[in-house]
Amino acid sequence: MLAGRPARRELLAVKGTAQMGPYTLLRLERGGMEPGIPGQFFMLEAPGRILPRPMSLCLAPPGELAFLIDPIGAGTRALCGLRPGDAIHVLGPLGNGFDLDVERPLLVAGGIGIAPLPYLAERLGGDVPVLLGFRSDVHAEAARLLPDAEVVVEPRLVTELLPDDPGDVLACGPEPMLEALRELAPSSQLAWEAPMACGYGACYGCVVELSESYVRLCTYGPVLREGQTLDTSAGDDERATSE
């Protein structure tokens, strides 16, 4: 689950955008950047904003990196407002992604948590079951990124679709959904979210509590799973291990 090649920072040109319900799919020229492991993230420098925004990679077609963005603040709205010919600096890939060495993958997402799943499904071979939950039919338009997925809309919960034997769950979504999955499928790999200012552990802005320890999600995660502990031999540069 550890990151592979070192991150790099490049100025990438915007190829275009597409609306997915309330979300925007931002397509960038890939340049010399690697897409990394599904579940890792990139820091996108929003125009007119001081701090970059962390985004999971959604799609990685040849020559492109695409990010699904929910315009909930000034920075994300600025990113959604980019047009072909614009360019932004991008740093990545960062963090630790999903472990792809699983026998029976089941992908689960809620809302904007769908963002890393298309690339994840592709890397797993494409023919994997997917469960998606959204707050409304408008938000559920994003499900066309995974056309074979089983989809529910509130008041139904995506966890209601979980089979008795779910196999290897790989999930991303809101904290209540992830907490429920941790109870229902303890071995799940869960991609968590936290505010990030740098993305590589310098600012301590994404500290979260895990197993009675406080860790930086950007370097220890964002994908976490039950049984992870701190590798104390790694010193200040936390690394993910499993018991």
Would you mind describing this structure in some detail?
The protein has 243 residues and is mainly beta. The protein has two domains: 8-94, Translation factors (Elongation Factor Tu (Ef-tu), domain 3); 105-190, Rossmann fold (3-Layer(aba) Sandwich), CATH 3.40.50. The protein is 12% helix and 34% strand. It contains four helices and 16 strands. The strands form four sheets. A six-stranded antiparallel beta sheet has the order 4-3-6-1-2-5, covered by helices on one side. A six-stranded mixed beta sheet has the order 9-8-7-10-11-14, covered by helices on one side. The chain has a two-stranded antiparallel ribbon with strand order 12-13. A hairpin with a 2-residue loop joins β12 and β13. The radius of gyration is 17 Å and the shape is globular. The chain starts with 7 loop residues before the first strand and ends with a strand. Mean pLDDT is 87; it is low at 229-243.
Name its key features.
mainly beta, six-stranded mixed sheet, 12% helix, 243 residues, globular, Rossmann fold
List the helices and strands and how they pair.
Blueprint: E1 8-20, E2 23-29, E3 41-44, E4 53-56, E5 64-69, H1 74-80, E6 87-94, E7 105-110, H2 117-123, E8 130-134, E9 150-153, E10 168-172, H3 175-184, E11 189-191, E12 207-210, E13 213-216, H4 217-220, E14 223-225, E15 228-230, E16 240-242
Parallel strand pairs: 7-8, 7-10, 8-9, 10-11
Antiparallel strand pairs: 1-2, 1-6, 2-5, 3-4, 3-6, 11-14, 12-13, 15-16
**Superfamily at the CATH H level of the largest domain?**
Translation factors
Given as residue ranges, the uncertain stretches (5+ residues, pLDDT < 50) are 229-243
Spatial separation of the terminal alpha carbons: 14 Å
Continuous helix count: 4
Gyration radius (Cα, Å) is 17 Å
CATH class of the largest domain: Mainly Beta
Whole-number mean pLDDT: 87
Major beta-sheet overview: 6 strands, antiparallel
Count of DSSP strands: 16
SS class:
mainly beta
**From the 3D coordinates, which CATH architecture of the largest domain would you assign?**
Beta Barrel
Report the principal-axis shape.
globular
Q: Strand-and-helix sequence, N→C?
A: EEEEEHEEHEEEHEEEHEEE
How is the largest sheet built, in terms of strand order?
A: 4-3-6-1-2-5
